[in-house]
Structure formats: C-alpha cells, structure tokens
C-alpha cells in the first residue's frame, strides 16, 4: 500500500472504514490505529489498535466506494445497475451516454464496466449534484474515462454516436428524439424510473418512435436475502421491496 492511497479497514465485527493511507492516527471505538504502519505493506495486512484489536486492510472495490461516498440524490441500487449492464450487454470499450449523474453511483458501475478503453459521458443538470458526482467519480479513480457535463439532456445530446444511452431522470421520453439519431443499431436505450405512471407516460411517447426499436422489455428486480444461522436458514423478514422499473429498448 502506498501513501495517499485509499484502503478499506475491516474490524472483527465486519465494520468497514474507507481511509487514506498517511502518517496519522485514526480513532475507532476499538482503539487508535496508526495508519502510517500500512505504508509499504501488501493488501490483507493486519494492523492493531493501541488496545490490541486487529483490523485487516483491503483494496476497496466500487461497492465499498459507493457505500462510503457522499450522497446527493438517491442512487441506483447495485441490483438494478447489475441488470442494466447485463441486459443491455454493456461491454469493455463501449461508449455510454448517461443522465442524470446524480450522486454518480450508476456512472461508477458503468465506468467500471466499459473499462479504460471505454467512455461514459454523463449529463447532470444541477450544479450541486454535478459537483458531488465529480468528486465521487474521482474517488473511484474513473475521471479519465468519464466526461461529466453540467447540462440538461432534454436540450439535446452533443455526441454524434453512442453504443448505449442509460437514463435515470423523471422524463426519459424527452430523450427519445435524440436517441434515434445518436444510438448505433443494436445499442440499447435504458430508462430507470421509480413510478409506474412514468413508465406509462414513456410508452405513450414511445409509439411515435417504435419503428426505430425492437420490442421493448420492462423489468423490476427483487432480491431476497437469507439469514444463515446454525439452527435455521430462512429469508430475512425485511427486504428492499421496490426501487424502480427498468425499460430496455434495442435500436434497429
Ligand atoms: N443514477 C444516479 C446515481 O446512481 O447516483 C442518481 C440519479 S438521480 C435519481 C436523478 C438525477 O437526474 C438528478 O441528479 C437530477 O438533477 C438529474 N436530472 C434530472 N433531469 C435532468 C436532465 N434533464 N438532464 C440532466 N440531468 C437531469
């Protein structure tokens, strides 16, 4: 681990801390850690607090970054990001146009998928959310493959072409006229919307553009976690019941 790098410290309870490796003390309820002790050590190394409690230092992944980063608006949940990426076949090297960036969570999932040869161009209309997304994308280390624009995508798309368009904003139908010009044949238009009436309104507007796309698909993703205990394995009593509807259109 190098000085200035971010690492994930995990304690015996599984509690996680995202910290910068530097020569300073870090206070926890299990005691004080000297973060400078991590410099030059490999990931997986253990350090002890002044009370003798052990922490393991791991390389943070994007889920750790997203869990710990500053939030502006509500983020797209990993279960929904996963299905967006899988169903649209988003791949390394792709160019994806996104809006709105919001807190940057979906941007980070997309940037992680397109890789260093790909690009994510993300529009965010609000300056305060643009700043939050910018910081979070930097924190994830993806600034070079993401172009963030403080712009309203309803006014148009600057880019001439894209492999996919992924939207998490109130009126995705406003982007359809630009999408038919910009999307490559075979690419996907994906719209994430929390409410059913948004899906309905979208499909009313879509009728005008239906000849440009294959038959649409709308999904909702439910993930049920289980408790695994010595005497009993069963579904958890609570679950995340609803996040959003995801509409997929494939360009002809
Ligand atoms: N997907 C984001 C994430 O995972 O962090 C969250 C997006 S948030 C729910 C919706 C965002 O869309 C807001 O930040 C809002 O300002 C932005 N937005 C709404 N209309 C927009 C537009 N016409 N152009 C660009 N951004 C827009």
TrEMBL record:
Single Gene Ontology MF annotation: tRNA (adenine(58)-N1)-methyltransferase activity
Keyword Nucleotidyltransferase among record annotations: no
Gene Ontology terms: biological process: tRNA methylation
Lipid metabolism found in the keyword field: no
Keywords: Methyltransferase, S-adenosyl-L-methionine, Transferase, tRNA processing
Annotated binding of S-adenosyl-L-methionine, by residue: 103-106, 124, 168
Signal peptide start and end residues: none
Chain ranges of the tRNA (adenine(58)-N(1))-methyltransferase catalytic subunit TRM61 C-terminal domain: 73-232
GO CC terms, sorted: tRNA (m1A) methyltransferase complex
InterPro entries, alphabetized: SAM-dependent_MTases_sf, TRM61_C, tRNA_MeTrfase_Gcd14
Pfam (any one): GCD14
PANTHER family: TRNA (ADENINE(58)-N(1))-METHYLTRANSFERASE (PTHR12133), TRNA (ADENINE(58)-N(1))-METHYLTRANSFERASE, MITOCHONDRIAL (PTHR12133:SF1)
Identification of the protein by name: tRNA methyltransferase
